[in-house]
Amino acid sequence: MDEKLSKMDVAMFVTYFCNIAVVTLSVVTVPAMAIEHNLTPRATAAFCAGVASLAPLGGVVGKLVNGFVCQHLGGQRSSWIYLLALSALSLSMSFSRSLAPVGLCLIGFEFLSSIQWTSVCHVLDQNYRTKPQKMAKGIALLSLSSTIGALVAKTVGAGMLQATNWRTVSRLGSLVALLGASTMYLGGGKYQKPVALKKDNVLSVIGGQQKQSPFSSLTTIMKSPVFWMIGIGHSLGYLARGSDRLLGPFLQQAGGISGSMAAGLTTSVTMGFLIGLLQGNAFSKMESVKEKMTMIKKSYVVSVLSTMGLAVCGINGISRFVGGSSNIVAAAITVFSGIIASTVSFQFYQFPNLVSATVFPESSAVSLSLFDAVGFFVTASVLGVNKRLLANFGWFTAWAFMAVIFGIGGAVMTHSIEPVLVQSQKNQRRRR
After folding, report:
1. Which of 231, 238, 251, 245 lies closest to 387 in space, CA to CA?
2. d(CA 171, CA 186)
3. Confidence tier at 215 by pLDDT (50, 70, 90)
4. What are the pLDDT digits (tens) for 217-275?
5. Which of 20, 123, 113 is nearest to 61 (CA)?
6. Where does the chain cross the membrane (predicted)?
7. Closest CA to 58 of 108, 23, 96, 12
8. Which sequence spans correspond to the domains of the chain?
9. What CATH number matches the domain at 1-184, 3.40.50.2000, 3.40.50.1100, 3.40.50.360, 1.20.1250.20?
């Protein structure tokens, strides 16, 4: 098999990289907006928590409707059109003179961004429908581009804030989105018009097989208890990613560091996801279900303990117990947040595909979108409650609540994924 990357693989990598980079830049720009308006550290934290809880709502709506948009327009066309809209939105936000529209802008970012995974997978599906190994490699590249895009956005954005203001960073995001749109337009391959009478030619990341109409699949999927349980567990990945918008103000307040340095340290979440991808490689190579379940259980236990570690860091005056050094607190926050991300990363990228192929083989595209929709909805709900806890009781209570959520989500996922792993193993043995 030719292991070289094709031009289309590179184009898909760049497109998704640009999409993630633009959305992630808000992690560093939102706290800077609050600082520009002279908000107190506590008010800044409340503001960031508030807009963080709103952003996933755009993802919920996007995952529910954008799959059908992509089916109608095709993956390539829907991708570059949405990236052009994302560029315009990022540019318009840079001219805002108040904090009022920030939440709506973040909702728009998530809505426009949510179509890209599906669109890029559709392009891969059209080109690699009869080449499942290349399809799998393409999905792995997308996961990698997502992580690298977030890491670069946080690092470059934080560095730019030291030399300029958040408006310039937001305008850079607009240019990055234009680059992504151009790459998809030029490198996405020849557009293939969808067949109107066959609504099964939709986005698939499982081997490129045709599936039944999304409309006829909804009832089957929504009635499945497994779908809801896996969806709840899947939300932990979105929760880990969404919480990085809280880390900036948390590091400033608890760690006593500058806003630009705090923004840079939020890369710990991205690095955690990258480490988790490496763990996912080890997970996929395990032969026995028992081994896999042991790894899953351990990862969720570590995530709960690490989140409780963040709660301890949020106790007022905690630095007095570590020699009066707030730098130690900031370092602990950085480490704990990275560990949390690493413990949910491989499940986040692998389990929806695994469950879709095993439990909903005729409706895998629809179930993938709906898993993400549930993840966004649960994340928005949890962060909404977390915002109120933070405003009324402080960081300790907010992170302790998150630890409870990670515990519940981990228990639900652990209980529901085992029979899926068993069935998947049986299916693999039949194919041999």
Report:
1. 245
2. 23
3. low
4. 778 888 899 999 999 999 999 899 877 778 888 888 888 887 778 877 888 888 888 88
5. 113
6. 12-32, 44-66, 78-95, 136-157, 169-188, 260-278, 299-322, 328-351, 363-384, 396-422
7. 108
8. 1-184, 217-432
9. 1.20.1250.20
